[in-house]
Specification:
Number of strands: 0
Structural class: mainly alpha
Number of helices: 3
Order of helices and strands: HHH
Largest sheet: none
Shape: globular
Length: 61
């Protein structure tokens, strides 16, 4: 397992980008983002928060 924080952050971003186009994956991706934020590095928590907020805003519209 890769310990590089930037790889994890960019992987999380990539999953979120894919979930935007494939709604079947959305719940799984959101669950994984939340899971990674629990014990993740500050960069993971910050990106996770940003991604969750983006999805939340899109849900409202």
């Amino acid at each position: 397992m890769d310990k590089s924080i930037i790889v994890k952050v960019m992987s999380m971003q990539t999953l979120a980008d894919i979930a935007e186009t494939d709604k079947k994956l959305l719940k799984t991706v959101l669950d994984e983002i939340q899971k990674q934020m629990v014990n993740g590095a500050p960069a993971i928590k910050a990106r996770g928060k940003k991604l969750l907020n983006i999805f939340k805003q899109k849900e409202i519209k």
